[in-house]
């Protein structure tokens, strides 16, 4: 595999990994929420929102270098 | 009203950006005589409908604006079909909200402004789905046939719709007749499709991307290509959330009515995944554009079943992302156009003399140059006859690509050779040795790095042919 092709494959793999993680975070939040208000506490929402915000900024920061 | 709004949005900046590779391919084919255009199409991987429509439009004008007009109109009509489909599935109120979101979907707008057939495919797929629900069987059959003449990947949508047509006993006979009509209309293309499949089987440019790649493709069908990088992770999470909400609220809907929206949202992506696993990587992201036009109404219907507070949270997360990505559509340049556009040829346009020639490493720059520099002779490095790296020999012949070695070009009596040394990931294995040979053999009078993305680059060299 040429250097260019290897670079392209590495880019696609990184993008796929980001997709899996981010997609998973979104699905996890909704899954934990269960579509019902009483399954989730305000405390969980605050913690999740903080984790979510930090994760998204972290991934977005690195995404700048991939594109 | 919705269609008028959609066409208005799709006309904003329709011809402002230059073509990218796929579009310039459409444009070059549209300039050929009809039999050669059909031969070039048959040698590639798509059926002919969008090329025939583009060819007809090109009789009046072959420009960015004119060739994108058919996809823009198709995209707007697809919004209307999406509204009707949602109305059948979930009622007028949700249909209005969903229709508006599809009209504003960055992915739908992007493909409505691309001189290719993806919004046409969306239109025919949704028309087929609506015709099926309304039991308008002749229209169903014709819509299926038109979808198959628009894109070979329409098959994944036809497979999705077929059970909805054939399982209900009361209408099975009529549905079977409609499918027979669709097959009969499409049959003339079958021999060409078999040849295309055989060429794809021998090698194709799509790279294996796994489950993450599949999720990414599904996500792009909603949020589009031109996202601001800072929003990318968030919109991916939103896509995951929307998929989960849609699946978790399945029991709250009347599945008999909304089942077709579920199928059109998820089954095509699953089919692509299965096809890729069973045969070879076939994850063409843009083939999921029609699925995106179903996913948005489905998510709208799902969100409508949530509590008021949950709906507010969902909208708080979705609307800023939608506004951000909509702004990206018009303000964030499409990188593929940056990389392959005619601006790379500006230097040659300014400095070329009539006795110069242009030598290309790959089909992309060759096709762009045919349009931008029609008065200069163009030659292309001989490439393998494989869809894995570019055009097939049949398509190259039909277009009239002049394949020649640098030695042949340098002794053809030209004053200078402008060498567009593009290196692409899939073609680098033969492009780099050719470039190195040329740089080692011929005196270089000038070099300009036009583009460098790490795995792809374009350098322009000025070669004195006489020496």
How would you characterize this protein structure?
The complex is a heterodimer of chains A (67) and B (467). Chain A is mainly alpha-helical and 67 residues long. Chain A has 2 helices and no strands. In chain A, helix 1 packs antiparallel against helix 2. The model of chain A has no long low-confidence stretch (mean pLDDT 74). Chain B has 467 residues and is of the alpha/beta class. Chain B has 2 domains: 331 residues, no CATH class; 124 residues, D-Maltodextrin-Binding Protein, domain 2. The N and C termini of chain B lie far apart (66 Å). Chain B is 65% helix and 7% strand. In chain B, helix 20 links the parallel strand 1 and strand 2. The longest helix of chain B has 27 residues. Chain B has a 5-stranded mixed beta sheet with strand order 2-1-3-5-4, with helices on both faces. The chains are: A mainly alpha (67), B alpha/beta (467). Chains A and B meet through helix 1 and helix 2 of A and helix 13, helix 14 and helix 23 of B.
Give a quick account of the main beta sheet of chain B: strands, pairing sense, barrel closure: 5 strands, mixed
Biggest beta sheet attributes of chain A:
none
Largest contact between protein chains? A-B, 38 and 44 residues
| SSE arrangement of chain B, N to C | HHHHHHHHHHHHHHHHHHHEHEHHEHEE
The fraction of residues assigned to DSSP E strands of chain A is under 5%
Mean pLDDT of chain A: 74
Query: What is the oligomer described by this structure?
Result: heterodimer
Shape of chain B: globular
Strand content of chain B: 5-15%
- SS content category of chain A: mainly alpha
Shape of chain A: elongated
Uncertain ranges of chain A = none
What percent of residues of chain B adopt helix (DSSP H or I)? Answer: 55-70%
Q: How confident overall, as mean pLDDT of chain B?
A: 90
* Radius of gyration computed on alpha carbons of chain A: 16 Å
Task: Flag low-confidence runs of chain B.
Answer: none
């Amino acid at each position: 595999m040429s250097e260019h092709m290897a670079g392209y494959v590495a880019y696609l793999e990184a993008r796929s990994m980001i997709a899996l993680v981010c997609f998973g975070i979104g699905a996890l939040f909704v899954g934990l929420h269960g579509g019902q208000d009483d399954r989730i506490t305000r405390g969980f929402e605050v913690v999740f929102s903080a984790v979510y915000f930090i994760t998204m900024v972290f991934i977005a920061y690195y995404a700048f270098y991939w594109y | 009203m919705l269609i008028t709004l959609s066409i208005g949005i799709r006309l904003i900046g329709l011809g402002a950006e230059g073509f990218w590779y796929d579009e310039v391919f459409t444009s070059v084919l549209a300039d050929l005589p009809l039999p050669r255009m059909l031969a070039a199409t048959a040698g590639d991987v798509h059926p002919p409908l969008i090329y025939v429509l583009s060819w007809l439009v090109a009789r009046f004008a072959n420009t960015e604006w004119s060739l994108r007009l058919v996809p823009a109109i198709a995209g707007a009509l697809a919004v209307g079909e999406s509204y009707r489909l949602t109305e059948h599935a979930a009622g007028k109120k949700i249909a209005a909200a969903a229709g508006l979101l599809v009209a504003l979907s960055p992915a739908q707008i992007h493909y409505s402004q691309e001189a290719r057939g993806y919004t046409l495919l969306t239109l025919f797929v949704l028309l087929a789905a609506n015709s099926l629900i309304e039991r308008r069987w002749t229209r169903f059959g014709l819509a299926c046939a038109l979808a198959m003449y628009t894109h070979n990947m329409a098959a994944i949508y036809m497979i999705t719709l077929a059970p909805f047509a054939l399982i209900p006993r009361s209408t099975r006979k009529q549905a079977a007749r409609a499918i027979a009509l669709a097959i009969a209309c499409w049959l003339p293309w079958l021999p060409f499709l078999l040849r295309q499949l055989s060429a794809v089987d021998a090698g194709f440019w799509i790279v294996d991307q796994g489950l993450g790649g599949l999720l990414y493709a599904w996500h792009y069908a909603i949020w589009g290509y031109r996202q601001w990088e800072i929003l990318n992770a968030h919109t991916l999470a939103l896509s995951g959330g929307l998929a989960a909400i849609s699946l978790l609220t399945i029991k709250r809907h009347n599945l008999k009515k909304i089942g077709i929206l579920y199928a059109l949202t998820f089954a095509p992506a699953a089919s692509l995944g299965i096809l890729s696993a069973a045969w070879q990587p076939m994850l063409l992201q843009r083939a999921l554009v029609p699925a995106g036009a179903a996913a948005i109404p489905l998510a709208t219907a799902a969100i409508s079943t949530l509590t008021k507070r949950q709906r507010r949270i969902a909208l708080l997360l979705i609307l800023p992302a939608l506004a951000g990505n909509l702004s990206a559509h018009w303000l964030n340049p499409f990188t593929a156009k940056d990389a392959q556009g005619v601006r790379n040829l500006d230097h040659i346009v300014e400095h070329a003399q009539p006795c110069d020639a242009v030598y290309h490493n790959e089909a992309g720059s060759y096709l762009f140059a045919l349009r931008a520099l029609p008065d200069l002779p163009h030659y292309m490095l001989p490439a393998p006859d494989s869809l894995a790296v570019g055009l097939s020999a049949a398509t190259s012949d039909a277009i009239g690509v002049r394949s020649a070695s640098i030695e042949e070009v340098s002794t053809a009596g030209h004053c200078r050779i402008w060498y567009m040394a593009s290196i692409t990931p899939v073609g680098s294995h033969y492009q780099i040795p050719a470039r190195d040979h040329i740089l080692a053999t011929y005196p270089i009078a000038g070099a300009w790095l036009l583009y460098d993305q790490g795995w792809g680059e374009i350098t322009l060299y000025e070669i004195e042919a006489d020496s």
